[in-house]
DNA sequence: GCGTACATAACAAACGTTAGGTACGTACTA
DNA sequence: TAGTACGTACCTAACGTTTGTTATGTACGC
């Protein structure tokens, strides 16, 4: 006995509203009432689709991850260092959507550090991100555009570099323009080139 | 007409309590009542020394910065890349205090991104950090242990790398042990050595 | 008639802030 | 030297909001 409304679609509407609230006010400003108001509805609707605020948060973070993945361009035909460069650039706040995602991401860390369950989810998310970068680094190493050594260390370093830039850019977008961010990433990757390697 | 109690000392006591609350519960868990309970006192005491919660937060962030500075070892007799290495290592969560500071720091970003005043303060704090690193980078460039180019770019990249490691380490301290964090920093600095440069 | 989809509304808890009250040391006056 | 006025240091208690959660009600398609 299915109802007329598309449950999954409506749930996505709620998620979208959650996303808009997060982008505007961060996790500290995420309340059921704010989400409801964003939809022009009441808290009853929100609780109807999400049993608790925690569930709302968890789902919002899953949304953030999938949004991030959507920004990564198709790497068809692109290989080695260039594929890695594109994968890292996709994380930088080079577009309004990218900025929005990163703002949500960074602001989630307060809650994620305080709540054990969110902490574990964030830890796993980081690990997934690194394992997506891993094969790209290995490929760049084999063609000589990245130095040898434990690829996991290189991945961690590149993830760190990228996310560190993200944070600085969020707080000072004027000093870290889109152009400069891209240039910083390029220069950095080039600087890592093994000694003797040429373009 | 000074009172018997040392106002400044008592204020520091309150700040210390704020700090302990932040380290344990993050900014999301920072409430006047939690601070008061941490001191075994009431909210009346807290408001007596800080006019508002905002003032409490601002002071806590100033505290975080000065704590960070205290961890930086004296660079007497140390120069060039080694001084830079020490300055960056001081920011890493290599000790319980370092972990505590970084936990507070990272968790402050949610509030700092949402509130314009805190945003400006955080932006300025980042700028101050970079300008403290700047002369060290220049020195390392002149002695050839860092490649030429705009030192500001190198500073931003190194700050990014370090803070990015901090975040990953906070979420996965087992995967990012003290030993590995130090090694990652060392390897990274060495990888940046200009082509042809030797130890 | 029954389950889904909401709105309405109330709940207790926790929040920042504010006001009033008490205790006590210092400073001034007689 | 005694007495009084005053400012500081807090506690107690309440204020009005806002929070997440929950119970109840209503409309409506199957």
Main sheet of chain A, how many strands, which sense, barrel? none
| Strand content bin of chain A | under 5%
> Helix tally of chain A?
9
Report helical residue fraction of chain A.
Answer: over 70%
Shape verdict of chain A: elongated
Order of H and E elements of chain A: HHHHHHHHH
Distance between the termini of chain A: 64 Å
How does this model look, in words?
The structure is a homodimer of 199-residue chains. Helix content of chain A is 72%, strand content 0%. The first copy, chain A, has 199 residues and is mainly α. Chain A folds into two domains: 1-51, Arc Repressor Mutant, subunit A (Orthogonal Bundle); 65-192, Orthogonal Bundle (Tetracycline Repressor, domain 2). In chain A, helix 5 packs antiparallel against helix 7 (116-142) and helix 6 packs across helix 7 (116-142). At the A-B interface, helix 6, helix 7, helix 8 and helix 9 of A face helix 6, helix 7, helix 8 and helix 9 of B. The structure holds a DNA duplex (30 and 30 nucleotides).
